[in-house]
C-alpha cells in the first residue's frame, strides 16, 4: 500500500539478500547438502528459513525434509561451504548508494540480521568500509538480548534501543527482503519497505508493509521524510 506522509529519523537494514547477494549463495549450499540426502531444497523451505536464527533455520529444513541430520551437523556442513563462497559475494543493486546517502546526511543507520558473527565477518569481508558506516550491528544468532528470531520483533527492538537516543519505533524505517523479516518489522511497530525475492508471494504482506519494491534502486527517500538524492547522484 502507499505510505502516508511520515518522518523517519532512524533506519535499520537487514543484511542477507538485501545489502549483499548472499541468499543465492545460501541456496546453492543448501541445495548441495539436501542432494546428499536425496532431497530437494525448495523455495517454500527457504522462505520459512529467511531471517531466522541459524539454528532455528536449520531445524526448519530438518523438520520439513525429515533429514536424518542434527542441527550441529547442518551447521558444520553449511559453514564448510560458506567458508569458500561468502568472501566474494557482491552487493545488491542500489544498496551502497542508499547506505552512503543516509550516512552522508547524518541519518542513524543500523543492521539487524539473523546471522552470527562467524558468517557476518566472512560475508562482509569484501565490503568492510561500507559496513563500517553503520552505527551498530545486531546479530540475532549470537546476541543474548535477542531471545527470538524473526518474525518475532526482538532484533529490531534491540537494534532501536542501541541507537542510544531512544527513537520512537513509529519513526524507524526497516528494510527487509525476507517475509519473516518484514513481519518482524511490522510487529516492532516500525515502517517497513519490503524488497522480496521474485519468487515470494507479495500478496501476503501487501496491506501491512509501507512499500514493496523490486530493488533498492526504486526507493525514493523523500517519501519517508528523508533527504532526497541529489541530482548528481
Automatic annotation (TrEMBL):
Source organism, top-level taxon: Eukaryota
InterPro entries in alphabetical order: HAD-like_sf, HAD-SF_hydro_IA, HAD_sf, PGP-like_dom2
Classification via Pfam families: Hydrolase
PANTHER family, sorted: 2-DEOXYGLUCOSE-6-PHOSPHATE PHOSPHATASE 2, PSEUDOURIDINE-5'-PHOSPHATASE
NCBIfam families the record matches: HAD-SF-IA-v3 (TIGR01509)
Designated name of the protein: Pseudouridine-5'-phosphatase
Organism taxonomic ancestry: Eukaryota, Metazoa, Spiralia, Lophotrochozoa, Mollusca
Gene symbol of the encoding locus: LOC101847528
Amino acid at each position: 500500500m502507499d505510505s502516508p506522509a511520515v518522518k523517519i529519523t532512524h533506519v535499520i537494514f537487514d543484511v542477507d539478500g538485501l545489502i549483499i547477494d548472499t541468499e543465492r549463495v545460501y541456496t546453492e549450499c543448501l541445495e548441495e547438502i539436501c542432494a546428499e540426502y536425496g532431497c530437494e531444497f525448495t523455495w517454500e523451505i527457504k522462505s520459512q528459513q529467511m531471517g531466522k536464527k541459524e539454528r532455528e533455520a536449520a531445524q526448519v529444513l530438518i523438520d520439513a525434509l525429515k533429514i536424518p541430520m542434527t542441527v550441529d551437523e547442518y551447521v558444520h556442513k553449511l559453514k564448510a561451504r560458506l567458508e569458500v563462497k561468502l568472501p566474494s559475494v557482491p552487493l545488491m543493486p542500489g544498496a551502497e548508494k542508499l547506505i552512503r546517502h543516509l550516512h552522508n546526511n547524518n541519518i542513524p543507520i543500523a543492521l539487524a540480521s539473523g546471522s552470527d558473527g562467524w558468517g557476518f565477518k566472512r560475508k562482509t569481508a569484501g565490503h568492510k568500509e561500507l559496513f563500517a558506516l553503520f552505527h551498530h550491528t545486531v546479530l540475532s544468532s549470537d546476541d543474548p538480548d535477542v531471545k527470538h528470531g524473526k518474525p518475532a520483533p526482538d532484533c529490531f527492538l534491540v537494534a532501536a534501543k542501541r541507537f542510544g537516543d531512544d527513537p520512537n519505533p513509529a519513526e524507524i524505517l526497516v528494510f527487509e527482503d525476507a517475509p519473516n523479516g518484514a513481519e518482524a518489522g511490522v510487529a516492532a511497530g516500525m515502517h517497513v519497505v519490503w524488497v522480496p525475492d521474485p519468487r515470494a508471494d507479495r500478496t501476503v504482506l501487501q496491506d501491512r508493509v509501507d512499500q514493496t519494491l523490486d530493488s533498492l534502486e526504486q526507493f525514493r527517500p523523500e517519501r519517508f521524510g528523508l533527504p532526497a538524492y541529489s541530482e548528481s547522484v
